[in-house]
Automatic annotation (TrEMBL):
<keyword id="KW-0812">Transmembrane</keyword>
<protein>
    <submittedName>
        <fullName>Bactoprenol glucosyl transferase</fullName>
    </submittedName>
</protein>
<dbReference type="InterPro" id="IPR050256">
    <property type="entry name" value="Glycosyltransferase_2"/>
</dbReference>
<feature type="transmembrane region" description="Helical">
    <location>
        <begin position="268"/>
        <end position="294"/>
    </location>
</feature>
<dbReference type="InterPro" id="IPR001173">
    <property type="entry name" value="Glyco_trans_2-like"/>
</dbReference>
<keyword id="KW-0472">Membrane</keyword>
<dbReference type="Pfam" id="PF00535">
    <property type="entry name" value="Glycos_transf_2"/>
</dbReference>
<dbReference type="InterPro" id="IPR029044">
    <property type="entry name" value="Nucleotide-diphossugar_trans"/>
</dbReference>
<keyword id="KW-0808">Transferase</keyword>
<dbReference type="GO" id="GO:0005886">
    <property type="term" value="C:plasma membrane"/>
</dbReference>
<dbReference type="GO" id="GO:0016757">
    <property type="term" value="F:glycosyltransferase activity"/>
</dbReference>
<keyword id="KW-1133">Transmembrane helix</keyword>
<keyword id="KW-0328">Glycosyltransferase</keyword>
<feature type="transmembrane region" description="Helical">
    <location>
        <begin position="235"/>
        <end position="256"/>
    </location>
</feature>
<feature type="domain" description="Glycosyltransferase 2-like">
    <location>
        <begin position="6"/>
        <end position="166"/>
    </location>
</feature>
């Protein structure tokens, strides 16, 4: 039978902690399924891990919950893994969460309650604070969201995580979006409907280490900006206008100095500095335009976002009821 809720979990190098995470997630999912009379499945998506994550995931047992394991042919990135989970999920509603254990599975009850009892279509987790992160990273995140929401028609909540639940109609709307350069947080906010933020504190990693380096975060930020927001182009235009205005004022001032006060024209250093500044800004604007053109080219090529190497579905075996029959003693001869 078709599940009511699919839990999509992207994986990357999580072999050491995956068995413990699976048992914990299965226990909470089974508890919710029994309390709500729902059918729930878990969809693990291995994003080309370099360790034994794919083989460990393939051996996971369905502890009362159906389990799908989708192994991608290589590492396509988290956004592609989320899309693979979206495509393979059989449930009407979707719950996305990371497989590193930092998204608490016990919040599942809260998300389902917001969906079933209060009628919210999107319930998403938001970090309560970032005091445990370095100041440079907090500043980078704040600047990223300011730039992302600059002039945007739909505001993307700051500090929102991929950990969220989408109701059936919200999941159906997300499935209708055709673009290949996807920014999941932005798309799930753009579809609208009733949305609710749920503060949470990420749990500490019990196994392994995070694979998100600063360069990968920077790449994801550029992906989000260029695929969802025109802010970089607008800011580049504003910088160009400011430089043009400053150059005009400076040129006018030089002419006035020469004609009125007889001050000789400045030498080559000012000219060279001006050319370097203008040339640097031009290269920056060309680079930003190149990022947008690269996204357009990717959409025109229409290449598949991912390829699946292996796919397996394990159905949970129904719990057999214990027989209440009592064996009667054999009649004496």
């Amino acid at each position: 039978m078709t599940p009511d809720l699919s839990i999509v979990v992207p994986l990357y190098n999580e072999a050491s902690g995956l068995p413990f995470f699976h048992r914990k997630l299965s226990d909470h999912a089974r508890r919710v399924a029994e309390a709500r009379a729902m059918r729930i499945e878990i969809v693990y998506v291995d994003d080309g891990s370099r360790d034994a994550t794919a083989s460990v995931a393939a051996d996971l047992q369905p502890h009362g919950i159906d389990v799908q394991v989708v192994a991608l042919s290589r590492n396509f990135g988290k956004e592609a893994a989320l899309m693979a989970g979206l495509d393979h999920a059989r449930g009407d509603a979707l719950l996305f969460m990371d497989g590193d254990g930092q998204h608490p599975p016990e919040m599942m009850e809260t998300f389902v309650s917001l969906w079933k009892d209060e009628g919210y279509d999107v319930a998403y987790a938001v970090k309560a604070d970032r005091t445990d992160e370095p100041p440079a990273r907090r500043l980078f995140v704040r600047m990223f969201y300011r730039l992302l929401n600059f002039g945007a028609a739909t505001r993307i909540p700051e500090d929102a995580a991929d950990f969220r639940l989408l109701s059936p109609r919200a999941a159906a709307a997300l499935r209708r979006l055709p673009e290949r350069n996807r920014f999941f947080k932005g798309l799930s906010s753009w579809i609208g409907f009733r949305q609710k933020a749920v503060p949470y504190r990420p749990a500490a990693r019990e196994h392994g280490s995070s694979s998100w380096s600063f360069l990968r975060l920077l790449g994801l930020s550029m992906e989000g900006l260029t695929s969802f927001s025109p802010a970089p182009l607008r800011m580049a235009g504003m910088v160009g206008a400011l430089l043009a205005g400053a150059a005009f004022l400076y040129g006018s001032w030089i002419v006035l100095e020469r004609l009125i006060w007889g001050i000789p024209l400045p030498g080559y250093p000012s000219v060279v500095v001006g050319l370097m500044v203008i040339g640097g800004v031009q290269l920056l604007v060309i680079g930003i335009m190149g990022e947008y053109i690269a996204r357009i080219l990717s959409e025109i090529k229409a290449r598949p976002v991912y390829f699946v190497a292996d796919h397996a579905v394990r159905h949970a075996e129904p719990v057999s009821e214990k027989s209440m029959a009592v064996e009667l003693p054999k009649a004496l001869p």
